[in-house]
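Hey, quick one: can you model this chain's 3D structure?
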Amino acid sequence: MSDEAPFRPREQLIEKQRLFQSMHKHTHLKGPMDKVTSVAIPLALAGSCLFLIGRGIYNMSHGIGKKE
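Sure thing. Here's the predicted structure for all 68 residues.
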């Protein structure tokens, strides 16, 4: 059986590995707009989830919104 040809030449892969291994920041926090997708959106989702859970606990403890 013959081996498959690689997607990229080996030299390119080694160059990319050197580039990413030499970086100090995480690769998903590189650009200024990347912070919106990796920080702001998850925080907004977590905040809305906590609000909805809190409202549900409040409604259950006071008997609000029950179906008869």
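One thing worth noting: The mean pLDDT is 83.
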